Amino acid sequence: MGEDRYDLVVLGAGSGGIAAAVRAAGHGARVALIEPEALGGTCVNRGCVPKKAMWLAADLALAQKTASALCFDGAERALDWSKFIGHRRRYIQGIHDSYRRRLAEAGVAVVAARGRLASASTVECLDAAGAVVGVARTGAVLLATGGCSRRADIPGGDLGIDSDGFFDLTAPPPRVVIVGGGYIAVELAGILSALGSRVRMLVRGARVLDGFDHELAEAACAHLGHVGVDLRFGLAVEAVQRGASGYRLALDDGSSMKDVDELLWAIGRVPNTAGLSLSGVGVELTANGRVQVDDFGCSACPGVYAVGDVASVGPALTPVAVRAGRRLADQLFGSAPRAPLLPELVPTVVFGRPPLGSVGLAEATARERFGDAAVTVFRGRYRPMLAALAGSEQRAFVKLVCVGPEQRVVGLHVAGPGADEMLQGFAVAMAMGATKADFDDTVAIHPTAAEELVLLS
């Protein structure tokens, strides 16, 4: 690479980094994008995209069972994981190719190296051995290095797999223990159970999906139980051993689990800040290791910014990183006025079995912010039509959290088939300030799951 000058150097070619680089180049900035691994970061290579592929495969597996219950003839067929992985890899390769074309068309210089800050305006590029192979002088640096899975700091904590290792599986392990209760744990538990594994989840706290609305979390537990996942709460793993018959887990209540074929850690993620030399230029980190930034993406070091999972502001979601990256580029190199990079209203979906979706505030958060007297809650439970036809007792759940005399909708939560697809439109309505009366005045589409949200009383 030698030495060159840029208007912007981006460290990390995940969703946020690529979005910022392409947008900045579109404004005429000279941009370098430094990434030692595959383009697309966690989302494309070890997260959203391959996860959704496996979720779709699991959906087809469950659809076969439903078809049998609805009198379709024929034996259920198991997934050939090895062949399916080929399809998954081809799909991801297509995304890589698309990124390369976009970056090339935008004139972004892509550097296959690891970057570190020598100063606020100087980025060193290192090869795999750690040798400096180039230097980039720049007017601004964007940290978009994302995060990685965390392991428990216990004896044997290095055993088993994490969410990355999940994508290396070529068959469903017969007996799986998933440690964790967040959205990754919930998603992988549903996928593995649907594809044939016996799954047990060990959750340290008293609930899954901490941070989501409590009734949505309860619905998630009910759905996991419906597909055969064994949930255990208030338990932590103190040590892990591996023997001829599988893993043995020592738990903090004095009990143990043995003969576990696969152990999957899903206890959270940590930001990728190691090796960036941030302290040397005055970039501050939060207690959990994320880059401390303000609402405008600015770190404590002038000219150094951060977006995405590595930044202290915003949830760790791909669309959040993309939006923040583009808005930052618009403000640095376009004509956009200086404004916070992220909105308060962020829709999100957990691809459980079935999916769960949430936009806005949980009920508890709304009550803390506005007071109990200002909050009105509307909720409904129903049996989806396909479940009813198949004789299943599975229930879906919808909930609106409203505030004030006008009953403005500040929280919307759905657990049931179609939640992933219906949520986006409702998020638009909420961003425009929709009230319960607006929902009531909307004609229902019948028979659908989405109509339940405009029929609540």
Q: Kindly, what is the distance between the CA atoms of the first and last residues, rounded to a whole number of angstroms? A: 64 Å
- Given as residue ranges, the uncertain stretches (5+ residues, pLDDT < 50) are none
How many domains? The number is: 3
Q: What Rg is obtained from the alpha carbons, in whole angstroms?
A: 24 Å
Could you characterize what this model shows?
The chain has 457 residues and is of the alpha/beta class. It has helices spanning 15-26, 41-46, 48-69, 81-106, 163-166, 183-194, 214-226, 318-333, 363-370, 385-389, 419-431, 436-440, and strands at 2-6, 8-11, 31-34, 109-111, 114-119, 122-126, 132-138, 141-143, 147-149, 175-179, 198-203, 230-233, 237-243, 246-251, 256-260, 262-265, 269-271, 304-306, 348-350, 356-360, 375-382, 396-403, 408-415. The protein folds into three domains: 2-46 and 83-148 and 270-333, FAD/NAD(P)-binding domain (3-Layer(bba) Sandwich); 163-267, FAD/NAD(P)-binding domain (3-Layer(bba) Sandwich), CATH 3.50.50.60; 354-454, Enolase-like, domain 1 (2-Layer Sandwich), CATH 3.30.390. 31% of the residues lie in helices and 25% in strands. The strands form six sheets. The protein has a five-stranded parallel sheet, with helices on one face. Strands 19-20-23-22-21 form a five-stranded antiparallel sheet, sandwiched between helices. The model has no long low-confidence stretch (mean pLDDT 96).
